[in-house]
Amino acid sequence: MAKRSTLFIRIVEGKNLPMHFNLFMSSLRTATIWKTLSPFWGEEYNVHLPPSFHNVSFHVLDEDSLSRDDVIGKVSISKEALAAKPQGIDGWMNLTEIDPDEEVQGEIHLKVSVLGKGYAPKILRCHVFEARDLAKKDRNGASDPFVRVSYNGKVHETAVVKKSCYPRWNESFEFELDEASADTPLSVEVWDWDLVSKNDFLGRVLFNINRLQSAQQEEGWFRLGPDKPKHSQYEGTLGSLRLKLMLRDEMVLPSSHYQPLVELLCQSVGGNLPELMMLIDETTTAESRQEVATNLIKLFLGQGLVKEFLDVLFKLELDKTGEPNTLFRSNSLASKSMESFLKVAGMQYLHRLLGPTINRIFEEKKYVELDPNKVELKEAGCAGLHRVQTEADVIQQSAGHLQSYLFDLIHAIVQSAVYCPTSLCQTFRQLYQRVQERFPEKEYRVSYIAVTSFLCLRFISPAIMSPKLFHLREKHADARTSRTLLLLAKAIQTIGNLDTLACFSKEPWMVPLQPAIQQGIAQLKDFITRLVSCDDSEDLGLQARMSLQCGSMEKEGFLFLHRTKDKCMLMTSPFKKYFVTLGKDTLSYARTQHSKSVNELNQWLSALRKACIHNTDTMSSYHPGIYKGDRWSCCHQKDKADAGCDKTRHGVTLQEWYDPLDPDLESQLIFRHLIGVRQAMRYAGSPYEERLDGVRRFFKVLQDLQDAHQAVEEEAERSRNKNFLLELQT
């Protein structure tokens, strides 16, 4: 049984902000938006947080390519504020000034005791053991921390530990307890020592003397808190951000509790209980459809039934569709499920397909425009030319560039038939055949459009328009490149619709691309014919790659690995660049690069944490530094076999499309949705419940799961009450 906290983040836009900025939190960083005070990001993330997190902060930075980025302001939201609004927070939030005394992190290990009995003077003793994960205040990436303990006007300080965020002091201090000043707290502050400038505040812990006298002793790890907040003189003048945030806390039960529900869901796509999937389809609202589709896709991938699941949804959608022109054009459960499936099963295929053309467009940065109302001649001119280009020249040149990009892309699509994943081929063939059975009088055109509506309109075109969101590029495109990508995506959509007349009647300025589009339509039809002719005997194999274990590759890219420094070579760097691959069972590195990939430190940490999530042999602590010379660089301990100064099981992980499956979590998410629509399902399913034992069992299974959750919550409440009573008695 485990508690999972997941935060959905949508960073929408900003207004009245300083220029040249980007946005970051501890685990993610947006692209930089240049030359605008009201940027639009539109970036979405799902972040898995440790249950002990207290708040989430978003910092706005002024990007500087030559020196360290300047922090402009921040938006901070507490865990309590997120939990108070289960439907989520969506709105504009003002940036606030960042006070260094409030930017604290880490924990300190203390033992505070009250010594002495009767009428004898009592002694207050504070033993300072160690601290971990302190803020990095110095340019060397660490701090020089010391502890200041004060009580009733008296102050003691520990020694300074140089260059460490995981210091160990093991020092004790004593104060004479003043019974008359019981309201005076014991203050434990951590500071970063600086030789020239003033010391930097790292956090504090306050102890109530009355409580200490009752308990006699308190020992443990205490979270460092900020100093007293100060009034900001810049409040309301730093701009604001529009954010959408939704926190989900899930109590995941052991697998045995979800097994009956999973078995019934499998029966619903296996032919024994089709009415159940029909009820889920009918009662899923538009707001929750995307999330439910993603969870169902992941669950059936783990069960090896994703092909059957999609087939059931295809048939349900076809039964409700009377006009073939509207087939799969709405955001139905079938459409959303197919979109999710393409992202899970086809992302590597998409990267291989689009990567070369997308990279070429970003590198060439050509000015491309076909709409006469948007042509800017100054953008098309050249400093060394005497003749100014006319509008016709610009459009002709732009058409040539777009035709070249379109030719490369269509050629890549045609060639991709040989490496398109078998799972995609079989799913598209299944879709093609179902549509052909439903609309036999329409020959093959409707079947072709059914395939292209997903492949071109819902997969390839969105990736062309927003390559960063599909991990094709590290940063968003600038305005010129974005326009080129948009025009190319329009051309692909026109080809996917297999109809040039509709496009050219709405946007007649696209006519210069007509020959290339007509040729592309013919080539796309040939490609689909090959795509849906795959061999059914081939094993789908996808669920094996997306099982509880990691996939064949979690991450790859260049990292700097520390090596022992040769004492004779004082000028050489102690770090060497290697190409690192994190796989299912191995973490390997080589001197050369095998494939191009850009991975930042937090993405690597996220991937490593996911790879180790089911490893029962994972250590509880580790050293975040290196053993150099005769000591660890993080905590300065000399014993190389020391257990470690930081916890391993904490930190933030990003939810990515290639994440390993977690069947229990997916089952819990589906259960939560089904409980929310149970009444609607009972109403819609009343005819089936009377005559089908499977539907009756389904509602009983939901009730049993709800009872199990309630029992866990009641036990947790009893435990909290018991601890509270023990504290009162103490």
UniProtKB/TrEMBL annotation:
The keyword Nucleotide-binding does not apply. It comes from the Eukaryota. Residues 288-497 form the Ras-GAP domain. InterPro entries: C2_dom, C2_domain_sf, PH-like_dom_sf, Ras_GTPase, RasGAP_CS, RasGAP_dom, Rho_GTPase_activation_prot, Znf_Btk_motif. GO terms for biological process: intracellular signal transduction. One of its GO terms (molecular function) is zinc ion binding. Residues 1-93, 104-222 form the C2 domain. The keyword Repeat applies. Keywords: GTPase activation, Metal-binding, Repeat, Zinc, Zinc-finger. SUPFAM superfamilies: C2 domain (Calcium/lipid-binding domain, CaLB), GTPase activation domain, GAP. This is RAS p21 protein activator 4. The gene is RASA4.
